[in-house]
Every structure is written in structure tokens, then in C-alpha cells.
From TrEMBL:
Protein name per the record: Transposase
Origin superkingdom: Eukaryota
């Protein structure tokens, strides 16, 4: 099991692909150990390694997280009011505008595993390019004049910065928001 742990740890540090077959091949190549795919899977589960998306983080259902979700939902529901539409259907709209924060991560050369390539157009190969963090706030409100739910990103809130180093702000940092490219 120590050999499996070492292989998985090294491939993760290298940022290389990692699968049961890769671990099997490395065991055979580096250590002369020939095992089945099923044995590798079983051993990896025994040392608490799980495939992506296979097992939830146990902290998702901790007492504090459940309490926080409950309070969050109570507050969200308290800001909603019922309204009848012109066709007599009931819908829920916010009493007061609500602001939501969004944090996203994107690799500069993100590509789909299967893609169509146009002849003559250069295409970046997938790899370990810089990761960007994109942060923005958006507001949701009910427009009484148009009788519709509206939303929009708050222009000055959109920031993009590389994941390496400290977070950058308007006051001190290399990254700029999209609308203040000084």
C-alpha cells in the first residue's frame, strides 16, 4: 500500500494524469509488482483514496454546516413574497434586491476532451496553464414597471487574477477589474 500511496502522491505533485491503469503500470514498471485493476481499486479504497465525485466530503453534513444552511434558507425565504401573474399563476419574488457573490476558476487553455478543430487555425494544446480566479457580484431584483425579475453583474465587482500569489485589489495588486484597466 505504501507503494500505491507513493505513486499517487507523486503523480498528484507532478500534476500528471492518474488512473487505476496508470498506477498498475507504474507498480509493474517501478517495483516489478503485477496486480489486477480490481486489486488496485480495492487497495486505493482501503487507504481512503476515492475517484473524483465518488464520495462526498463528510464536512458537508457537519452540524455547523446544517445549521448554517438552515439559517441561510430562512433568511432567503423571509425576503420572498408571493405575487400573482397576469395569467393567475403564483410566483415568488424578492422584496428587496439580493446580492450574490460568484467565484470561478478557469485555466487559460481550457479545452474540451473531444473537440472539433478547424484546419489552419492554431489551437492551444491542453496542459497545465495558469489558473485564473474570477470574482464578481451580481444583484437580483424585481422590476415593478416591467413586471419581471431582473439581474445583472455589478461592473466594478468583476476581478480576474492568477491563482499564484495574493489576491489583488484596486488598491494594491497587479490585477485590475474588467472596467478599470489602468
Amino acid at each position: 500500500m505504501a507503494k500505491i500511496h507513493g505513486i499517487v502522491e507523486q503523480t498528484n505533485k507532478d500534476g500528471a494524469a492518474n488512473s487505476t491503469n496508470i498506477v498498475r503500470n507504474r507498480l509493474k514498471q517501478d517495483h516489478g509488482v503485477n496486480v489486477s485493476k480490481r486489486t488496485v481499486n480495492r487497495r486505493m479504497n482501503e487507504i481512503c483514496y476515492w475517484g473524483t465525485g465518488v464520495r462526498r466530503n463528510i464536512n458537508h453534513d457537519s452540524i455547523k454546516n446544517v445549521e448554517y444552511r438552515h439559517k441561510y434558507l430562512e433568511r432567503r425565504l423571509a425576503n420572498l413574497t408571493a405575487q400573482l401573474t397576469k395569467d393567475g399563476k403564483q410566483r415568488w419574488i424578492p422584496k428587496h434586491p439580493e446580492v450574490f457573490l460568484d467565484e470561478s476558476y478557469c485555466h487559460l487553455d481550457h479545452t474540451a476532451p473531444a473537440r472539433w478543430i478547424i484546419p489552419g487555425v492554431p489551437v492551444a494544446e491542453p496542459g497545465r496553464s495558469p489558473l485564473l480566479i474570477i470574482f464578481a457580484a451580481f444583484v437580483v431584483w424585481y422590476d415593478k414597471d416591467k413586471e419581471e425579475l431582473r439581474s445583472k453583474f455589478i461592473d466594478e465587482s468583476v476581478y480576474i487574477w492568477p491563482s499564484i500569489g495574493k489576491a489583488h485589489t484596486k488598491l494594491g495588486g497587479a490585477a485590475k477589474n474588467l472596467f478599470n484597466k489602468e
